[in-house]
Amino acid sequence: MRRMTYFNYLYDLYGISLGSTIKAQELFRALEKMGYHIGIHWRKARESDEGSSCQVRRVLKPLLARYLHEPNQLFRNVRYFFDEHRILCREKPDILIARLETNVFSPVLLAKHLRIPFIAEVDSPVTYEIRHFTQHYYLPYPLLERMEMRFIQEAEMAYCVSHELKRYFIERGVPENKLKVISNGADINRFNPDVPGQSVRERYFLKGKTVIGFVGSFHYWHGVYHLIELIDEMIKYYPGIVFLLVGEGGPLKNELHRYVAEKSLEQQVILTGLVDHDMVPAHINAMDIVLAPYPPLDFFYYSPVKIFEYMACGKAVVSTRSGQIGEMIKHGENGMLCTPGSTAEMVQVLKQLLNNESLKKSIGRNAAKLIASHHTWQHKAKQLSDLITKVIHAYPV
Predict the structure, then answer these.
(1) Mean pLDDT of 346-366
(2) What is the dihedral of CA 182, 188, 193, 194, to 10 degrees?
(3) Greatest extent of the chain over all pairs of C-alpha atoms, in Å
(4) How is domain 3-185+376-394 classified at the CATH fold level?
(5) Helices then strands (H, E): number in the chain?
């Protein structure tokens, strides 16, 4: 039995970080079924947990936050180092996996100090995200990028969620042979066409309605503005349509709620709020067509969990032709692809599916087959297990 320790530094685990949280939980659950013993540690402390023990830090944070984004993250490395040292000495892992995060370097130091093989989990280009999505901060971006690159380069190997992300780090100097792509996946025991969605339809009075659905947080990169335009257009043509929007969190949530209230669309746009992940399959199977309306993005490095779960449930996915999505979905065969940002094109695709039941069902069947044959969490766990074996065998004794 191999022993593994995992450190993750996300803070909003069940809001905007839900996809990454699910990925870690599902991937390691599949590894455990393969015989691994895994210690999973969500390392990011909540603000409320910091108590009154550090008056200096509480005074400095408001003054420095605009310049260091999360200055307390730098201070936390000291605490992380000693806490994680105790964890690693207790668990004695064969391999350490830690998620890349801004200003975090404790696992790099500990892996070297304790001589533990180290693999970096790289789900996002963290400095790029801060630079583009939190522009009100003044940050030493070159320094942050150097820390980010050092985190990856000091690891024996790193795994990314997409080829786009792998190319990004190669362009910044990480050797190609140090980077492996392991995309997200789906648990087909829980996400499959046989999960009943009738209870969800009854709860939201959807009997006899055509339901177009969306699952996810309401962040900039999830295409919320595009979604609002789409709702506006579709209800003109199909008054019987209901949009079922499942999720919580993100800076555009309030804007979406305001739009629904101002237009008096409460009967046509159902906002469920946060739904337990175990209940998501039933919500997806209450939908007739599912959406992933990503906006035009110069750098689409994501591996959207919802795409895998939509397809595993045998649904006709309507998405934008972006990054990994365009690699997975073959238009008209196992999904429908549109130009990012084109509401008119997405409206036409939705009309095509609404008017062609056999096409919709055929696309759903093909989607479910693709996930079952190539993209279950068991497939992804096997890829990670092979990577772990390679790293352990190559690590100098």
Answers:
(1) 96
(2) -170
(3) 68
(4) Rossmann fold (3.40.50)
(5) 16, 12
